[in-house]
């Protein structure tokens, strides 16, 4: 093991030194790296002088009208790759993913957390208003879940998490397609089912929600255009996961997460690897004792991640070859991954009738109307929706009927942060546009 670490490290150091000190070697090596289309050490990586500027997609979302004209494919290079880091609870994914992103010069996306959607742009924390919301709208965070994992709200939370992972995965693709920078993502929507399997094994969710979830997963994955280039799975014994969880010191997590829960997750990951090995490269490491990053980097650099030659790796990475057809094709996918709404609607809109058959997800109509009135009178203290509140937003004070389904900014991180309220609000305005029937004592009736 030691000699492998030393060899991997010295090889990269010597190659880097050679390229820095010799223009002859540089002209010989850099074209070869470019041709291989594999991930390159950030110290060896160099963009051409005519490389187009990254598109500021969050401030200036890419418009569809530019699809035939913008040189989108020219932004792609050897390191325009998506790496997903997977592993059980307490496996050390977060630290590993952060270090890997830094070593490669990639953008790091931590695993989705409910905190990302429970606090709005104005600083309102939805959890502080739970006592005013009907139960169905008291969406829990991870700490609340661990306190009462058998609650009906567990299904609500997990349903929300999956759909947010859908958005987050598109966010990762949008970053790559707009800037060219690679992304290291912790967990993804592909692996989310491992937790649902474990929750069902513990009887924390109903059989109806379990069936609904897997149907939702099947339908929604059809809207994802690209698989990860590489999946890195950190394998640790159950005993090690439990040890790491205890070291984190959360008493509710320690009480809820037991050997049975972790074992179901571990076994489900085996199914995931079987599912994805046809489409993505898979690297698995025994992370009982974390290895040196040099070993992992050496394994990554050996992979031939050619997005241009469709025959280079069979079905592995095949979904990415479509981008090489033309700038128009590249930018078409770029537009949908950045705008997200059409893909989100295709993935989840047809499920609205099915979720009425799942007791945990069903919304009693009067509860929905009361929730909207609470949002107007207690949370936002305004009749307008996110992005249109007078005095707080650039686009403010529109007439109520003029408020569209979307937030005014073209870019949003997660539908379930604010976008969903704008959509719900718009559809109910004809019933009670100004919330004049708000009843503060509704929950006590």
TrEMBL record:
Q: Where in the cell is it found?
A: Mitochondrion matrix
**What's an example GO BP annotation here?**
mitochondrial electron transport, NADH to ubiquinone
Asked whether the UniProt record includes Ribonucleoprotein among its keywords, one would answer no
Organism domain of life: Eukaryota
Q: Which residues form the Deoxynucleoside kinase domain?
A: 83-288
Q: Which UniProt keywords apply?
A: Electron transport, FAD, Flavoprotein, Mitochondrion, Respiratory chain, Transit peptide, Transport
The reply on keyword Signal is: no
* Cellular component aspect of the GO annotation: mitochondrial matrix
Tell me its cofactors: FAD
Q: Which PANTHER family match?
A: DEOXYNUCLEOSIDE KINASE, NADH DEHYDROGENASE [UBIQUINONE] 1 ALPHA SUBCOMPLEX SUBUNIT 10, MITOCHONDRIAL
The role this protein plays is: Accessory subunit of the mitochondrial membrane respiratory chain NADH dehydrogenase (Complex I), that is believed not to be involved in catalysis. Complex I functions in the transfer of electrons from NADH to the respiratory chain. The immediate electron acceptor for the enzyme is believed to be ubiquinone.
Say which family it is in.
Belongs to the complex I NDUFA10 subunit family.
Q: What is this protein called?
A: NADH dehydrogenase [ubiquinone] 1 alpha subcomplex subunit 10, mitochondrial
Q: Give the species.
A: Meloidogyne enterolobii
Q: Lineage of the native species?
A: Eukaryota, Metazoa, Ecdysozoa, Nematoda, Chromadorea
